[in-house]
Each structure stands twice: as structure tokens, then as C-alpha cells.
Amino acid sequence: MTNTDLPSSQQPFVTRVDARCCEVMVDGKIVSALLRGKLFEDIGSDKNPVTVGDYVNLSRTGDDWAIDRVHERRNTFARRVAGEESDRRQLLAANVDQVVIVNSVGIPPFSSMVADRILATCSFANIPATLVLNKADKGKRGKMKKIVASYDNTGAKMIITSAVDGTGVEELRDLLTNKTSVLYGLSGVGKSTLMNRLDGDLEIKTREVSGSLRTGRHTTSHSQWYPLTGGGAVIDTPGVRKFRPFGIPPNDLRIHFKDLHQFGKDCDYDDCTHREEASCKVLEALENGQIAASRYRSYGAVLEELEEKYGGTGRIVEKTGPDHKARR
After folding, report:
1. Which of 129, 177, 239, 322 could share a disulfide with 122, CB 3.0–4.6 Å?
2. What does the alpha-carbon distance between residue 204 and residue 4 come to, in Å, rounded to a whole number?
3. What are the chain's domains?
4. Helix residue ranges per DSSP H, the chain
5. Can the peptide bond before residue 7 be classed as cis, meaning omega within 30 degrees of 0?
């Protein structure tokens, strides 16, 4: 019987990726496996041919294992490679059930710009996302309420947590049970501490936050799959300072800002960018306080970045029906 014949619950899958070697779960045990050179030959714009969560075909010679093939992915969570002008994709995880975006309301401060970029990426990849506001014991109640309110119409679930006093830990545990979840967020937001509070068997290493930069030092240097005692698994990812979406067509970005899109779908023009167009329903909603200013700023910043990378929309499409206009 080959790997391909096995049900997914028994398929070997990647639990950690290094430069040319992976850790793979095989029959309940972790083995080290080299990456065949042919895996790098046809990766297109991808930086890495294999990521955590990939189901793979293996071959074995004595005690040496090698990955021969990566199975088709159900989904991928990815970003544009950091620090590069080239348009390459960095795979962060594959075949996941959800992404949990961990934020801090202490130090480092909450960054709507980062959270919104990850939310849009999850929407583009069709992966459910949850926002976690961690370090609630250090946050101001009024500020937390304002953050929560700004995401009311985004479709994202939100959980307020504290690894110190246990706030929200049970709710988070329920969310993660029997699912494969990616944990993602800025450096220093307390992902590792929170997970150790949630499941003491994990023993994920932690570090203090840098006082000078108000951001954490990178505790996790690679994505790592961890089984949860109550069922399911988490993929802990390295903390980031920036996040750049990959591959979203500029003209589609508005769809992935769901709070904007609920107003934008009534705009006169089908490809309204919601920046300066006359009778733009998004701008009206923003002025009326129906859309959070922070969300709109995030949308504008990401749109500008995507247009610079992929070019503007260029084409104006007339909506059908008597209430919509064409522009040339």
C-alpha cells in the first residue's frame, strides 16, 4: 500500500520545516526526512516547496527518510516574503481548519493594520479566522471595547484572553478542540504563554518583550505542529513585525474587507475603490461612523500596496440595472 492509498488520518504529514529537512509524523512517530531536489524544481513563486500541515509521500533507505511528493493542498495560509521586492509566496501552513490571530492589548499595543491584513488574507484563502485580544489583564477596558466594536461587522469571531488570570482560556480551548489551528501574530503578543496556560503539556518556550522596541523577540523560529491534549492541534508560527498579503487582486480586496463590502456592494460603480468616487456608499458609511476609521485606513494601505505590486484595476465596469451608471 502506498501513501496515496491511505486515509488522511493515516497519511504522513509535516510537523516542522527547516531549510532542507522536515519532521514528519509517520504512524504516530516523528521522523526526520530530507527534501528531494526535484521538489524545488517546480515551485513557481513559492519560497518553500513544503510547509507544516502538508501531506506527503515518503521513501526510506535504511534509517534515512525522504519526501518524494507533496499532496494537493486543501488550503494554504501564506504571506508575501518579507524583506523582498520580488513577488514570492511564503507558505506558513496548509490543510488547516482555522487561523487564530493573537493580538495584545498591553505591550506590544494592538495593531489593527497587522490584524486587518491577516484577516483579508484568511478571507482570500477561504479560511475561517478568529481574533484573540490577549493580555486583557493589562489592557484598558474602554480601549478593548472600542477595538471589539470596530470588528462588529467583519464576520470574525473575537475572544478576549489573559494567560495571567485565565480570562477567555476556556472559550479558546473550546475553539481549538478537534481542529487544526494556526496561531499567528506579532512578536511578543503572548502566543506561547497563552498556549502553555491552555495546555500545560505543550511547554512552548517563551521570552520577554523588548522594552526598547515594545515588540517581542522571536521565540519561535519556525512553524511547529503541536498536538492538543483534548484533541486537535495547533501550528505555532514565528512572531512577525509586518505582514504583507500575497496574490490578492487589487480589484478584489474590497470583498475581503467584509464590513466595507456590505456598504460597497451598493456603490454606483461595480469596481468602486472607495477612495474618492462620487456617491460611494463606503465613504458615506465611514462619515456616519458605521465603519471604523482604523479598518478603512487598513484597507487603503493594503490597496495601495497591492496596486503598486500588481497594477491598478484599469477597467471600469458598469453595474446592470437602472440605478447604476457607467463611467469612462
Report:
1. 129
2. 33
3. 3-70 (2.40.50.140), 76-236 (3.40.50.300), 250-310 (1.10.40.50)
4. 112-125, 141-150, 169-176, 191-198, 258-264, 281-287, 293-310
5. no
**Count of CA atoms in the C-beta half-sphere (13 A) of 289:** 2
Task: Give me 136's grid cell.
Answer: 486583557
CA–CA distance, 294 with 50 (Å, rounded to integer)? 35
Q: How far apart are CA 292 and CA 294, in angstroms?
A: 5
Q: Report the residue count for the chain.
A: 328
SS3 at position 323: coil
Q: What is the pLDDT along the chain (328 residues), one digit of tens a residue?
A: 345 444 455 799 999 998 778 999 999 999 999 999 999 998 889 999 999 999 999 999 999 999 999 999 999 999 999 876 778 999 999 999 999 999 999 899 999 999 999 999 999 999 999 999 999 999 899 999 999 999 999 989 999 999 999 999 999 999 999 999 999 999 899 998 999 999 888 766 554 443 433 444 444 458 899 999 999 999 999 878 889 999 999 999 999 999 999 999 999 988 899 998 888 999 999 999 999 999 999 999 999 999 998 887 533 333 333 343 434 3
The pTM of this model reads 0.87
Pairing verdict, β 56-61 and 64-70: antiparallel
Place of cell 478568529: 130
Q: Could you give the CA distance from residue 197 to residue 195 in angstroms, rounded to a whole number?
A: 5
Q: Which residues contact 50 (CB under 8 A, 6 or more apart)?
A: 14, 17, 22, 35, 39, 56, 67, 70, 91
Three cell numbers, residue 27: 504512524
By CB atoms closer than 10 A (0-12, 13-18, 19+), residue 60 is: exposed
CA-CA-CA-CA torsion sign (86, 118, 247, 325): negative
Distance CA 125, CA 292 (A): 24
